[in-house]
Structures
1.
Amino acid sequence: MQIESNLPAAIDVDARLNQIAKRYKGAGGVGINVLNVIGGSAEGLIDRLPSVIRRNLEAATVKALGQAMKAATSTRAMVPDQKIWLNQAVSAAMGAAGGAGGLPTAMAELPVTTTLLLRVIQGVAVEHGFDPLAENVQFDCVQVFSAAGPLAEDDGADLAFLSARVALSGRAMQAVIAKVAPRLAVVLGQKLAAQAVPVLGAVAGAATNYAYTSYYEDMAHVHFGLRKLAIDADIPHGELVERLRIKVGQKRVS
């Protein structure tokens, strides 16, 4: 007589980490193709921006993130999460429209694209069983933006965003946004500069938006995949981050 067991199935932590590591390693690949489209290097892109925009880029990023957080959360009841291919298509279309008019339209499109990216990240959180309306999950969604963008070369610091935690408080979201903004400002500055390329503005806008949507969707899977694995396997999150760091060949950043 066979006795059925109600015990949960054993979790293959190493296999799950391998899947997460594979997604992490492949996340930035599309950025190389974007650079081939727009020409030049990621570092040189921001130098193409007018100095007044470079000076105000971080403030614009803080504003865009704040608007995006409110808009992305408020639209969840009206607009369901979409398939990633549809998000990529919509994002590319918005980037093309933003780039068609040069810097003025690209600047106007920035908060809209940021909102779409945040909705993509929230959708991934839902896939992994997290409530995007929960305060701590909203913090995590914004925290994903602190990963280096798809046009940046791997500097060994990308995984640092996985370990960052902010204590819950009334001003915690502003603190998260302020912490994320400097790095995201560089990413969005590269996007704006690409869209300002003469003639290629619309093409570059579509390409960068497609790359950014793909990249942050992948990084969100890495982030929330580790969070979920920590819960399922009852293993400290920090320990999983270090094991992932070894798998992707990164040294610990002090």
2.
Amino acid sequence: MSKIDRLDIKQLRTFQALIQEKNASRAASHIGITQQAVSEHLKKLRDVFDDRLFLRKTDGFIPTPFAEELSIEVEQLLGDFKKLLSPKVFDPKTVSGTFVIAATDYAQQVVLPQFIATLRKQSPNLKLIVRDFEIDKLHELMESGKVNLAIAFPDYIPDSYPVIKLFEEHHVCVTSPNSMLIDSKPSLKDIAAYPSIIASPSRPNFKGSIDDWFKQFGLKRNVVVSAPCFSIVPMYLDTTDSIAFLPSRAIKGLNLIEIPLDQSPDSFDVIAAWHPRYNENALQKWVVSMLNVESN
């Protein structure tokens, strides 16, 4: 057995008390143990350090020269232990390091611009990495600590992850100002038959979340273009006579025309999620709290 395996913090606290009190009875009272326990700890310390450490005198103990030198290091070591066990005070203004956010294309457009501005203002030494949301790799990335926070839709997040709802969103049907639909009042059947562009960030195919909604009315969409992200769809609409269903907050300020519908798709939540291992992490809790403030 190595020397470090034979040493514990109780022995070091006893040593420190003996240095301070120079008396076994007072040392025992100081740290709340029996005088016999003090003697046992001292015996083990003498064995570990191969030094008598304290010599008896009429009214107590006197430390050896080695013990006096050792006391400086023990004092520092016990101080470090206290710091380790003390509650950590989190100050966003001084915190440093890197925080990684995985966000959908939609979240990068709608949620992150103002949120990043807030984080930069409140925590200027914190570096931020924003990466594309990879639904197939999300759990692996978050479990390994390569992603700290995910901003997406509920269907993209594992059920076991803690989440907060940021806000509620809904899709609107839009087209370009040059579309032939502008001067008509299309029915839902007409909308389903019209050439449609979808954003499919997770997988490149012709299926979107709106398909199930159309199925309720016995209709199937005429999807002709599948784009990898929401942000590019308005450009495609501008050059083709087509329509798209886009989140309402993603079209603000864009040159698009909303097509009124008799029926509207169901609303959906936009959420933030993280791995359970970070539940008590001070930086994680602060970032989430800031995100919650921004979304309300």
